[in-house]
Design goal:
The chain folds into two domains: about 40 residues, no CATH class; about 70 residues. It is about 60% helix and about 5% strand.
Amino acid sequence: MSDAVEQLIAGFADEVARLPAEVIVMLAPDEARSLGRRCARSGLASLIWASRLGDTLNTTEVSKRLKISRQALAKRMAAGTVLGIPGRTTTYYPIWQSSLMTAMSEKKSARYSGYSNRRWDLSMLTQFPLG
């Protein structure tokens, strides 16, 4: 087992040990295991997303770069023409998408025009909450 895994387990155990014992004993063993798995996925979600998507910008940063309102950005996301990953307090936009939008506006090439109307399928986002 790697040092990182051992430290994750140790850190989780440290925090569980600090919880009120009367709450922990109410959990059935299968419930405790299921809860532990959900905690691991939730706790590592931002690392998982970062490894899959790369760097992201939040709503405020994208709005400023595109010189549009937050509402206009939300409309683009709702229309499926901008990929945004909802987080707890903001929405995250992959930087590679911002680069593509910049390239489209600079080159104004017909071969890029299809990307501006692309709709993104976000159905797989429920497995790892971001935030």
